[in-house]
Amino acid sequence: MSYAISGECCSDASCVAVCPMNSIHPAPGEPGFGTGASLFIDPRTCIDCGACADICPVDAAQPADQAAPEDVRRNAEYFAEREPLEATDLDSWEPPSYEVWGGGPRRVLVVGAGPAGIYATRELLLRTTAEVTLADRFDTVGGLVRYGVAPDHPRTKQIIETFERVIQHPRVRWRPGTDAASLLNKQAVAPGSGRSGGFDAVVHAVGARRSRRLGIAGEDGACTAEDFVAWYNGRPGAVAPTDLVGPRAVVVGNGNVALDVARVLLSDEEQLRGMDVSPEVRRMLAASGVKQVVLVGRRGPDEAAYTQSAFQELRAAVGDRVEFRYHAWPTAWTGEGLVLDSGETIAAGNLFTAIGFEGRPVDGLPFDPDRGIVPNVRGAVVDRPGHYVAGWIKRGARGGIGVNKACAQETVMTLVSSARGSASPGS
User: Fold this and answer.
1) Which of 55, 93, 267, 377 falls between 20 and 30 A from 295, CA-CA?
2) How far apart are CA 315 and CA 251, in angstroms?
3) Each residue of 25-78: pLDDT tens digit?
């Protein structure tokens, strides 16, 4: 299912900046931008990530099955005689303009090959003459797109194919399975030197995958979203985090990840066969006996963090077996039920916590534990010249795939400005 833009479009192009697949046109600078009544989404390349809907100021971007048929038809007709544009093609579109970083080869290290790291690499290739070393602790690109997107969303995961094209660029040195800390220990960072054996700049795009904790009694017996999602997505080193015990499970959290966990837990054998999971994961989920999930939100429905499209998907897939409980504050997990501050206990065999993620400290960089980020100004790390951040470690664990594109562009713009001789905001 793709997205479509309705006639209520205001054409402010914020959706263009966040679309990870370059699917929304006409973009600024293209013929027709600002002169028509609407922008359009290419249904051939849309990966159903919802980034456009999340940022649209007038709610004009909608899932195609919820949009008016005439709007879906108009979107398709706009692209009928146009070739699809490749999201990572360095010549397919022009991002916000600023001066290139020239004057000879430079060396930049990008740590992390998730969306933020890939978009930072792409922007460096577009805007500089740098050689980019891209390092990741895993052997593959994709980060949370590969190991965080629900396995019944294969369309969204298609973007990994375009990410893989970035590492094939002749100015990219791909270093899979690499510990970035040891790499930096061997090759020092010397901003602007361009000297052999060192990096002129480092962009840390390491994400924020550690689950936040509830801070309640018995929480060590619960399963975090980090562990459960890593297991069913087959992240290297992940193991079954808990025995699944039916017939009821409780999930604390009201974001998209919480809804994903509930949907996966309640999937029947036919739905599981259509998921990109290992046979062992499929077997354990099918044998779990979980027939009902209670989603516990500490705030009200108006403050829920899930998107409308994610809510509708849950309702359509397993809605009659999900109970929503709002304004419910957990105080303890007994192993057999979740105790609320009202005194009520929700009987259940498993507790899953999905209340958000937070960053971890990065060696050698300052860290704000309250916000879970590396302190920075527009991506430049405070008091660490030559070091930059992008993605969740820069702005906190919020925003989907597409938001990382605009975030990485800002970081690289700051890096380029510093390299041209401007005073670094973090120096």
Assistant:
1) 55
2) 16
3) 998 888 888 776 689 999 999 999 888 988 888 889 999 988 899 999 999 999
Q: Which long-range contacts (CB under 8 A, 24 or more apart) does 231-236 make?
A: 231/281, 232/151, 232/264, 232/277, 232/281, 232/285, 233/146, 233/147, 233/148, 233/149, 233/151, 233/277, 234/147, 234/277, 234/278, 234/281, 235/138, 235/147, 236/138, 236/139
Look at residue 23 and give its three-state secondary structure: coil
Helices (H) and strands (E) in the chain, counts: 15, 21
- CA-to-CA distance for 118 and 166, rounded, in angstroms? 7
pLDDT per position as a tens digit, 105-128: 589 999 999 999 999 999 999 888
The reported pLDDT for the residue numbered 423 is: 40
Q: Please state whether beta strands 107-111 and 201-204 pair in parallel, antiparallel, or not at all (unpaired).
A: parallel
Domain annotation for the chain: domains and CATH numbers? 3-78 (3.30.70.20), 107-208+359-419 (3.40.50.720), 216-355 (3.50.50.60)
What predicted TM-score, i.e. pTM, was given to this entire model?
0.86
